[in-house]
Amino acid sequence: MSAFKTTLTGYARYRGREGQISFLLHRITGLGVLLFLTIHILDTATVYFFPSLYAHAIDIYRTTLFGVGEMGLIFCVIFHGVNGLRIAFADWFPNMKLWRITTERKSVLFTLAISVVLWLPTVGVMGFNILKHNYGLFGG
Amino acid sequence: MKITLKIYRYNTEDGKPPHYDTFVVPDAEENDLVLDLLECVRGYQDGTLSFRRSCAHGICGSDAMRINGRNYLACKVLVKDLGTDQITIEPILGLPVLKDLIVDMNPFYEHYRSVLPFFMCPDDPVADGKERIQTPEERERYDDTTKCILCACCTTSCPSFWADGRYVGPAAIVNAHRFIFDNRDCGAEDRLNILNEQMGVWRCRTAFNCTEACPRDINITKAIADVKKAITTGKIE
Q1: What are the Cα distances from residue A136, in Å, to A57, A130, A139, B3, B92?
Q2: pLDDT higher for B121 or A5?
Q3: What domains does chain B contain, in order, with CATH numbers?
Q4: How many angstroms separate the CA atoms of A31 and B148, rounded?
Q5: N or C: at which end does chain B have fewer Cβ atoms within 10 angstroms?
Q6: ipTM of the complex
Q7: CA–CA separation, A72 vs A78, rounded Å?
Q8: Distance (Å, rounded) from C-alpha A47 to C-alpha B152?
Q9: What is the distance in angstroms between the Cα of B28 and the nearest Cα belonging to chain A?
Q10: Verdict on whether the full-model pTM lies above 0.95
């Protein structure tokens, strides 16, 4: 079995617990941010190479689909950052209780909860703007 | 109780692609080991089924396999621990399958050998010429990592090892830890240099799969963190 196939098999079928879920979410959110950065570089590049397309690119950003995608992007950034801090903090203090398996499981769930709490206000603000500007609600 | 076993089958000699065979063990008990079920299948239903086993008491580490998607020793997991009568058994991931549930352990042992897992202090004669005195506290520092039985449950549950088999893996790091933090040993610097290389400890992504999988309850991820910190600070505390 190739390493790529082994990796996909492991990601999809190995029944790891909170640690593996956290690892996978960290990867997925990292790739999500990378995807957005790539798109963002491309659309910004249109200013220089195809100026007539730039306004069109900005219009695409204002669509509901992109708006919802940006909410996902914010979650990716927040979770990736908070989880990265958790891992870095734990790495620097290997003698802490954080390294016990039961504590580690709780710390993953705690990280997820913090990320969601930090993310919800963004969802509120961005969701409000989408409803206002794209659907004419709230006096839009 | 009736248990249905779905077992991964692969034989390089019969030319068939890997597949799963289903066996029913009609009179299993909830306190039966998964290893007992495999022996029942091999003894009464299909003598060609291949798997490793030796002591059957969780000491030799021969029968590591993926049971319902998670690494276990088949001789340490009871039917009731799994909470289901449908059991899927597959070989551990990341090592080449030789036949059915048997994998080639050589790459794993090569990684183990690469960290110099033996006592090194040749030029330091003991004061009384008899023994190297060590306090209980000094012994306690690496007590956890002395328990490793080299079953490969940890290494083959590691996402970094799945992605790149050149990664030295948790088991090798655990065995390096056992000597690095032994104050009677003089080879810590050599081992830390080996583990500081590209395929050393920095491949660890702190997923904790190794700790979850270890049948000896070694806190492997913490041991890896100990080694990372020793490399970073240059101090063995």
Answers
A1: 22, 9, 6, 60, 56
A2: A5
A3: 3-103 (3.10.20.30), 106-233 (1.10.1060.10)
A4: 36
A5: C
A6: 0.88
A7: 10
A8: 54
A9: 25
A10: no
